[in-house]
Amino acid sequence: MELIYKLSAAVSCGIVVVILAWRVLNWVWFRPRKLEKYLRQQGFDGNSYRLFFGDGKEMAMIIKEAKSKPINLSDDVVPRMVPVVHKTIQNYGKNYFLWLGPTPLVSIMDPDLIREVLNKNYHFQRPSGGNPLTKLIASGLIGYEGDKWAK
User: Fold this and answer.
1) Has residue 121 been placed in a domain?
2) Is residue 125 domain-resident?
3) Superkingdom of this entry's organism (predicted)?
4) Residue 44, φ and ψ in degrees, nearest 5
5) Which residues constitute the domain of residue 49?
6) Long-range CB pairs of 5-9, under 8 A, 24+ apart, other chains included
7) Residue 143 covered by a domain
8) Which residue of 51, 54, 88, 151 lies most exposed, with the fewest beta carbons within 10 A?
9) Which residues, including other chains, have CB under 8 Å from residue 118's CB and lie 6 or more apart?
Protein backbone atom coordinates (compact mmCIF):
# COMPACT_ATOMS: atom_id res chain seq x y z
CA MET A 1 0.00 0.00 0.00
CA GLU A 2 2.79 2.36 0.92
CA LEU A 3 4.56 1.54 -2.33
CA ILE A 4 1.49 2.59 -4.33
CA TYR A 5 1.44 6.00 -2.61
CA LYS A 6 5.13 6.55 -3.27
CA LEU A 7 4.78 5.44 -6.88
CA SER A 8 1.76 7.66 -7.52
CA ALA A 9 3.54 10.62 -5.89
CA ALA A 10 6.63 10.01 -8.04
CA VAL A 11 4.53 9.75 -11.21
CA SER A 12 2.62 12.92 -10.30
CA CYS A 13 5.85 14.81 -9.64
CA GLY A 14 7.29 13.50 -12.89
CA ILE A 15 4.25 14.69 -14.85
CA VAL A 16 4.44 18.12 -13.22
CA VAL A 17 8.16 18.39 -14.04
CA VAL A 18 7.57 17.37 -17.67
CA ILE A 19 4.72 19.90 -18.05
CA LEU A 20 6.79 22.71 -16.52
CA ALA A 21 9.81 21.80 -18.66
CA TRP A 22 7.63 21.84 -21.78
CA ARG A 23 6.20 25.26 -20.89
CA VAL A 24 9.64 26.73 -20.24
CA LEU A 25 11.03 25.23 -23.45
CA ASN A 26 8.04 26.56 -25.39
CA TRP A 27 8.45 30.04 -23.85
CA VAL A 28 12.21 30.19 -24.30
CA TRP A 29 12.76 28.40 -27.61
CA PHE A 30 9.81 27.13 -29.70
CA ARG A 31 7.56 30.21 -29.58
CA PRO A 32 10.35 32.73 -30.41
CA ARG A 33 11.55 30.57 -33.32
CA LYS A 34 7.99 30.32 -34.65
CA LEU A 35 7.50 34.08 -34.33
CA GLU A 36 10.80 34.69 -36.12
CA LYS A 37 9.67 32.46 -38.99
CA TYR A 38 6.35 34.35 -39.29
CA LEU A 39 8.05 37.75 -39.19
CA ARG A 40 10.50 36.75 -41.92
CA GLN A 41 7.61 35.46 -44.06
CA GLN A 42 5.94 38.86 -43.70
CA GLY A 43 9.03 40.69 -44.97
CA PHE A 44 10.64 41.77 -41.71
CA ASP A 45 14.34 41.29 -41.18
CA GLY A 46 16.42 41.17 -38.03
CA ASN A 47 18.86 39.15 -35.98
CA SER A 48 18.13 35.50 -35.37
CA TYR A 49 16.77 34.69 -31.93
CA ARG A 50 19.37 34.01 -29.25
CA LEU A 51 18.42 32.01 -26.20
CA PHE A 52 17.33 33.97 -23.07
CA PHE A 53 18.86 37.39 -23.81
CA GLY A 54 17.82 37.98 -27.41
CA ASP A 55 19.59 41.09 -28.69
CA GLY A 56 20.19 42.49 -25.19
CA LYS A 57 23.95 41.99 -25.11
CA GLU A 58 24.41 43.42 -28.60
CA MET A 59 22.19 46.42 -27.79
CA ALA A 60 24.17 47.15 -24.63
CA MET A 61 27.42 46.97 -26.60
CA ILE A 62 26.10 49.34 -29.32
CA ILE A 63 24.92 51.86 -26.70
CA LYS A 64 28.23 51.68 -24.83
CA GLU A 65 30.16 52.20 -28.08
CA ALA A 66 27.99 55.18 -29.09
CA LYS A 67 28.38 56.88 -25.71
CA SER A 68 32.13 56.38 -25.67
CA LYS A 69 32.67 58.51 -28.78
CA PRO A 70 32.76 62.29 -28.45
CA ILE A 71 30.17 64.27 -30.42
CA ASN A 72 30.52 67.69 -32.02
CA LEU A 73 27.74 70.21 -32.45
CA SER A 74 27.78 69.70 -36.22
CA ASP A 75 27.51 65.89 -36.00
CA ASP A 76 24.35 63.92 -36.64
CA VAL A 77 22.72 63.24 -33.26
CA VAL A 78 20.67 60.20 -34.29
CA PRO A 79 23.53 57.67 -33.96
CA ARG A 80 24.20 59.04 -30.47
CA MET A 81 20.60 59.33 -29.22
CA VAL A 82 19.17 56.06 -30.59
CA PRO A 83 22.19 54.01 -31.63
CA VAL A 84 20.41 50.64 -31.64
CA VAL A 85 17.66 51.86 -33.96
CA HIS A 86 20.16 53.64 -36.22
CA LYS A 87 22.40 50.58 -36.53
CA THR A 88 19.47 48.23 -37.08
CA ILE A 89 18.02 50.42 -39.83
CA GLN A 90 21.42 50.46 -41.53
CA ASN A 91 21.66 46.67 -41.34
CA TYR A 92 18.07 45.54 -41.99
CA GLY A 93 16.09 48.43 -43.47
CA LYS A 94 13.10 50.33 -42.13
CA ASN A 95 10.93 47.33 -41.25
CA TYR A 96 12.80 45.21 -38.73
CA PHE A 97 12.52 43.31 -35.50
CA LEU A 98 14.70 43.12 -32.40
CA TRP A 99 14.61 40.54 -29.64
CA LEU A 100 13.95 41.69 -26.07
CA GLY A 101 14.52 38.35 -24.42
CA PRO A 102 12.06 35.88 -25.96
CA THR A 103 9.78 38.70 -27.19
CA PRO A 104 10.21 40.35 -30.59
CA LEU A 105 9.99 44.13 -30.85
CA VAL A 106 8.65 44.91 -34.34
CA SER A 107 9.37 48.33 -35.83
CA ILE A 108 7.52 49.59 -38.89
CA MET A 109 8.63 52.79 -40.60
CA ASP A 110 6.86 52.35 -43.95
CA PRO A 111 3.99 54.91 -44.07
CA ASP A 112 1.63 52.54 -45.92
CA LEU A 113 2.12 49.77 -43.37
CA ILE A 114 1.73 52.23 -40.49
CA ARG A 115 -1.55 53.42 -41.98
CA GLU A 116 -2.74 49.81 -42.33
CA VAL A 117 -1.85 49.01 -38.70
CA LEU A 118 -3.59 52.14 -37.40
CA ASN A 119 -6.71 51.55 -39.51
CA LYS A 120 -6.99 47.91 -38.41
CA ASN A 121 -6.43 48.51 -34.72
CA TYR A 122 -8.57 45.50 -33.73
CA HIS A 123 -6.35 43.16 -35.77
CA PHE A 124 -3.08 44.55 -34.36
CA GLN A 125 -3.61 44.77 -30.62
CA ARG A 126 -1.02 45.27 -27.95
CA PRO A 127 -0.11 42.14 -26.05
CA SER A 128 -1.79 41.77 -22.70
CA GLY A 129 -0.05 40.52 -19.61
CA GLY A 130 3.29 41.79 -18.48
CA ASN A 131 4.30 43.01 -15.08
CA PRO A 132 1.32 43.50 -12.71
CA LEU A 133 3.19 46.20 -10.77
CA THR A 134 3.68 48.21 -13.96
CA LYS A 135 -0.04 47.90 -14.71
CA LEU A 136 -0.86 49.21 -11.25
CA ILE A 137 1.55 52.15 -11.28
CA ALA A 138 1.66 53.18 -14.94
CA SER A 139 -1.99 53.21 -15.94
CA GLY A 140 -1.77 56.36 -18.03
CA LEU A 141 -3.20 57.25 -21.41
CA ILE A 142 -0.90 54.93 -23.32
CA GLY A 143 -2.20 51.94 -21.37
CA TYR A 144 -5.87 52.58 -22.16
CA GLU A 145 -7.82 50.74 -24.81
CA GLY A 146 -11.35 50.95 -26.19
CA ASP A 147 -13.79 53.30 -24.43
CA LYS A 148 -11.23 54.68 -21.98
CA TRP A 149 -9.02 55.68 -24.94
CA ALA A 150 -11.95 57.36 -26.74
CA LYS A 151 -12.66 59.69 -23.79
Assistant:
1) no
2) no
3) Eukaryota
4) -90, 150
5) 2-109
6) none
7) no
8) 151
9) none
